[in-house]
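Priority: medium. Attachment 1 of 2:
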């Protein structure tokens, strides 16, 4: 479990991926770097979220860059950082239309600050992006909610605690924990997502990928490891189906912590498995 008193290493992820060949393998048309926000471990008394002022500043800076890329219809590949990265991505999308979200994560990240042990935005980012929480975080530039709950699929959670799951079960988010995903099947789950996009006539959708959705045996370099998780084969099937859709606007990758993978073993495996899925983007 993450220690909130210590700055996590996830902010080093973009440069780490570049060093290990991710960027050269994909050869993006353009790269833009945004400096990570200052890390403060104090909990804001208004939002009850740690470092919320800096998170808001970063989200605004991020959204200003991404918003233009959305306008230009460029596919977004956003590299974290932790899951609070979603706030800036979501804000950029909301400013350009109505979009869906396929949220791939080993946790729901759909809780209130009162439920959180760490008070970290990274454990509440989906809730924040759907408008649950203090307006300083949920209503940046008057855009609350960044995603409507009914336009979100939350897929892959394997923290089955009753109290933890209650908020998302009581919401309108389409919820597919790992056990349900496997029972229903990947094809049907994604089919239901595409059907939701069509019914609601959405402008497109975005994919959030927290690497802790992967099995801990193949991706232990995360701040909140758990047993079980997706295989790389399952992840590839999901991503290739999603990213081959013309309504896919982009994907963000979060939580892989270079400090927890000093030899790069798990990161190199991740790059080897995810690059083919990203290269298939039409």
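Attachment 2 of 2:
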């Amino acid at each position: 479990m993450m220690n909130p008193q210590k700055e996590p290493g996830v902010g080093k992820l973009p440069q780490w991926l570049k060093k290990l060949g991710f960027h050269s393998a994909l050869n993006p048309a353009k790269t833009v770097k945004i400096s990570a926000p200052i890390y403060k471990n104090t909990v804001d008394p208004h939002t009850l979220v740690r470092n919320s002022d800096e998170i808001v500043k970063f989200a605004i800076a991020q959204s200003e860059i991404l918003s233009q890329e959305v306008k230009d219809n460029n596919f977004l590949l956003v590299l974290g950082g932790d899951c609070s990265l979603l706030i800036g991505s979501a804000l950029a999308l909301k400013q350009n239309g109505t979009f869906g979200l396929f949220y791939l994560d080993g946790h729901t990240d759909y809780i209130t600050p009162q439920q959180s042990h760490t008070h970290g935005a990274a454990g509440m980012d989906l809730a924040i992006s759907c408008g649950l929480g203090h307006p300083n975080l949920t209503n940046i530039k008057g855009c609350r909610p960044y995603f409507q709950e009914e336009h979100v699929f939350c897929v892959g959670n394997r923290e089955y605690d009753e109290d933890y799951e209650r908020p998302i079960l009581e919401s309108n988010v389409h919820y597919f924990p790992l056990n349900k995903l496997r029972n229903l099947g990947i094809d049907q789950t994604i089919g239901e997502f595409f059907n939701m996009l069509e019914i609601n006539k959405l402008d497109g959708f975005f994919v959030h990928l927290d690497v802790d959705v992967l099995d801990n045996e193949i991706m232990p370099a995360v701040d909140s490891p758990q047993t079980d998780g997706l295989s790389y084969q399952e992840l590839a099937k999901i991503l290739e189906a999603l990213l081959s859709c013309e309504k896919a606007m982009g994907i963000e990758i979060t939580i892989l912590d270079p400090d927890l993978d000093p030899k790069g073993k798990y990161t190199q495996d991740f790059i080897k498995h995810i690059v083919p899925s990203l290269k298939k983007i039409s």
